[in-house]
Amino acid sequence: MPLVMCPSQDCVTNKSGGRLSLQTRGSKFIKFQEIKIQEHTDQVPIGNIPRSMTIWCRGTNTRLCQPGDHVAVTGIFLPLLRTGFRQMTQGLLSDTFLEAHRIILLNKSEDEEIEDKEMNEVELADLFAEKDLYDRLAMSIAPEIYGHEDIKKALLLLLVGGIDKSPQGMKVRGNINVCLMGDPGVAKSQLLSYVNRLAQRSQYTTGRGSSGVGLTSALIKDPITNELVLEGGALVLADQGVCCIDEFDKMTEHDRTAIYEVMEQQTISIAKAGILTSLNSRTS
Questions:
Q1: Distance (Å, whole) CA 210 – CA 255
Q2: Is the pTM of this model over 0.85?
Q3: What does the longest C-alpha to C-alpha distance in the chain come to?
Q4: Sequence-separated (6 or more) residues with CB below 8 Å from residue 239
Q5: Confidence class of residue 114 from pLDDT cuts 50, 70 and 90?
Q6: CATH assignment, 121-280
């Protein structure tokens, strides 16, 4: 960040507090991005909540990840220096951030798969020739849960998905939505949790602890620019993946209607505080 106060010895000795003005023509501008990461659920200590950290990215490290990605970040842990009145009020306390030097994506998409590990046409033909392939793939989902063959086949089709079509300009979604209904204690939540661990991109939430804003998007104030920005919810973070909502019947009717557009059109339309946009939510 550019200096605000003059650091010369004369200004420090006289306590004149000379303020510096930024000359934009003689400055060099680089790309900057602020990312907020959260601790993975399987790495959270027992009895604690997931911790979060602010990441500052510059130059080529910007725009390497999307919301909902699993990343490994290497960098330097630094204090966030304040100036002026903020420095006087905070004393010895300081906020911290991580200056990123390298960002590695941990989840692989279809475009990033290694080509030499892909199956050729002969191997695919031999695989499809097996009569019990569909049943074996379905039973590999939550093998510790006995039975529920039809439900496991439906969850397998949900994970595989379909193909998006656009006949005559009208988009027909290829994603499959599944609703499981049944008595308590028949392993509905366990199947949902297994699908959440199996999918490449997934978000898990409950109907009681979720709201319409938390599922779609919310307006927050950017701490750097002090402008209103959109923050994606669970459905936006699960784009091109699976969003698992447990206890769906416990949601209020107002919050439940917020996901109708996502289930059919796979978009989230926003018109708030002068922000008019549409977010992709291609999730099952």
A1: 8
A2: no
A3: 88
A4: 66, 67, 68, 201, 280, 281, 282, 283
A5: very low
A6: 3.40.50.300
What is the rounded CA–CA span in Å between residue 85 and residue 91? 10
Chain mean pLDDT for the chain: 81
Contacts of 102 (CB under 8 A, 6+ apart): 61, 73, 74, 75
Please tell us whether the domain made up of 9-40+49-105 is placed in CATH 2.40.50.140: yes
Q: Where are the domains of the chain?
A: 9-40+49-105, 121-280
The pLDDT of residue 113 = 45
Closest CA to 158 of 180, 175, 145: 175
As a whole number, mean pLDDT of residues 226-249 equals 85
Cα distance between residue 15 and residue 189, in whole Å: 65
Quote the DSSP letter at residue 132.
T
